[in-house]
Design brief:
The protein has 12 helices and 10 strands. By secondary structure, it is an alpha+beta fold. A 3-stranded antiparallel beta sheet has the order 1-2-5. Strands 6-7-10 form a 3-stranded antiparallel beta sheet.
Amino acid sequence: MADISAALVVKLRKMSGQGMMDCKKALQETDGDVEKAMDLLRKKGLATLAKRAGRDTSEGLVVGKTSTDGKTAALATLCCETDFVAKSDDFVATAKSLTDFALACPKDEGIESILETSVDGKTFNDLLTEIVSKTGEKTQVGDYIKYKLDGPGLISTYIHFNEKVGTMLQVDTSNDEIADAEAIKQAASDISMHITATKPLALNKDQIDPETLEREKAIFAEQVKGKPANIIDKIVEGKMNKFYAENCLLQQPFVKDDSKSVEQVLDEAAKQAGGQAKIRRFVRFEVG
C-alpha cells in the first residue's frame, strides 16, 4: 500500500470536500493517484444514491435567481432526507449553485435537462453525486422552471424566510417604463408573497383542471341533493363562484387588503404608473 502524505490527503479534501479519513482511504486504494481517488469518491456517491433510491426527500430548500438584466428568472427546489442536512453548509452551497445551473439550462423546465446542464466543466448531476458522498443522504432536484420575458414586463420571485416555499410571477406591461415603475414592482412583489401564502390553483377559472371542477360540482350537488333541480343549480353555482374566489389568483381577496381582489390591486398599480399590466403566469414550489 502506498505511503500517503498528509499534504496529499489535504489536497484531495480541498478538491472533493470529503472527510479526511474518506480521502485518505481513497488515496490508499488508488496508490496515491488523486484523479483516480476523485473517481472513487464519486462512485461512492453514486452507490449511496442507488442504495437510498427509495428514501423520502421531504426536506430541503427552495432557491431562485434572476439574471442581471432582469429578463430571465428561475425557481427550483433541492431536496434531501433530513432538516439537519438541509441546513448544512455543503447542502446550502449546492442549492445556491443550483440557481446558476437553472439560468444556464437550455430548457425552461424539466429536471433531467437541469441535471445534464454543465457550468464550469461540471454538470449538476456531478454536484449531486458529490453532495451525496458528503452527507450520505439521498439528494435530488424536486422542481425546476424558468421564465423569460418576450416583451415588456417583469419577473418577481419571493422565497419565504424558512426557504421551504417560493413563488415566481411574470407580469406583462404595456411598455418598459411601466415595468420599471415602483408601483408595479411593489405590486408584483406583494402578489408574489400573496401566492406563497394562499396557494392558488390557477390564474383564473379557465386554467383549472376540468376534472377538478367536475369533482367540486359533484360534491356541492351531493350536499344539497333532495332539493328542487332549479334550486340545486343555483346553490351549486354560488358554491362554485366561492370556489373560484378562493382558488383563482385574480379573484382571490388580496391578503394585505381583502376589500380588493388581486386583479384590482394590479390594475390600480398600473393606473398609478400610467399604463397597463396583467399577470401572465405564476408558479409556487414548496418543500415537504
